[in-house]
Write the structure tokens for this entry.
Amino acid sequence: MTPERTLSSIRVGLGVLFLVRTTIGARLVGLASPNWLYGWPSGGWHPSVFGIALPSTVMCALCVLRTLGAVAFVIGYRVRLGGLVAGLCGLAVLTQDPLAFFNTMYLLHVGVVMIALSIPDALSPPRFLVMSVYAWAGIAKLNSDWLSGRVLFELAADGTIRRGGSLVGTTTAVVAAITVVVIELSLPLLLLLRRSRPIGLVAAVAFHVALEAFVRPDLFGWAMLSLLVAFVGEQKPRMLSR
């Protein structure tokens, strides 16, 4: 697959996920969507990330521009402009809710902006994004709460782990927690090197399929699978392809 077709595939996949998650379409996939457009003002006071609450008219305009930009991004019309409008307006909307910067939303917005800025034959930006997500996720789990299995045990207890939660005991929680960290820290290196890239791709896909089956972390897994397409396409000889 050529770099152009690879980026086009990522653009459509990521753009559709962006539209689904930021519109009432989120309800169709069983996710919370309080309004017809994510972030649409509901009236009253609300906290913001930087302490500056935007007027309702500005919020409405940002939500509409974000959606129009995302539509243009998906259909391939003025891709760079559409992606930047969608991503940047969307990030501005997220600043109005301190709890809005969860993994899926942040990845979708940053991913759309990065793809919009990528030149037609450059696969390095989305590849770096994917590897950085795995690396930081693994590093963030290098703490006693996670490595002791306590977090997974509590997730199983409160029903967040949808399948097999009853099988999560003290020992299995520790093994699973360490396994997740090893996978997340190994994937960047496996994906970086051409010889090990097929192994990394298979491991990454299996990892996200397992997460969807057991936890279903919003649309995060689907967004990562869309970005992983960057490792399927062939790229001109550059640092990541050596």
